[in-house]
Design goal:
Blueprint (H helix, E strand, L loop, with lengths): L3 E4 L8 H7 L3 H10 L1 E7 L2 E12 L2 E9 L8 H15 L4 E7 L3 H9 L3 E6 L2 H5 L5 E2 L2 E2 L3 E7 L1
Parallel strand pairs: 4-5
Antiparallel strand pairs: 1-2, 2-3, 3-4, 5-9, 6-9, 7-8
Bound molecules: acetyl coenzyme *A.
Length: 152
Amino acid sequence: MSLNIKPLLNPLEAPYELLLLADPSRRLVEEYIKRGDCFVAYSGDEPVGEFVLIRTHPQTVEIVNIAVKEHYQGQGIGQTLIARAIEEAKRMDARTLEIGTGNSSFMQLKLYQKCGFRIFAVDIDFFIRNYEAEIFEDGIQVKDMIRLRMDL
Ligand code: ACO
């Protein structure tokens, strides 16, 4: 499938349907859109994926949100988005790219490690501190954030 990945120029056109797939908190997603750089992948005119980059520390950029439309998942678009995120982070002069996901997100952990990220920390109780409702995935409560990073 041919994908056209473009920076989001107008925050009012942010693809919330996709952004909320990766993060159920509208408040956090709105903050990411305000603070970060969002890139949207189009198949023709249809937005099928996105990622958001934020500078967190000097020379460190984080992918704070990444999603592919459900119907298109499992076809390699996620890997393509991460490859583009790596390019964009290098363009931002970052030396480290980070990403975090829930303790129960096994597919995501597989994808991130396949793309070259390594686990370096666990933010204990991150999802309990930052989300009002309890979140469950495959019968496991999402409590801790697994933090991964790669050198660029
Ligand atoms: N369905 C199938 N395979 C998946 C999935 C999935 N939902 N997620 C990850 N994988 C695995 C596959 O096994 C595949 O490995 P393989 O090549 O050995 O088969 C590998 O990851 C690559 O998969 P892609 O097809 O490139 O990934 P995809 O296009 O499905 O995108 C993503 C992955 C972004 C996680 C997507 O499934 C999605 O949007 N999920 C819902 C939202 C989400 O969880 N976002 C991440 C939250 S964390 C954060 O935003 C920082």
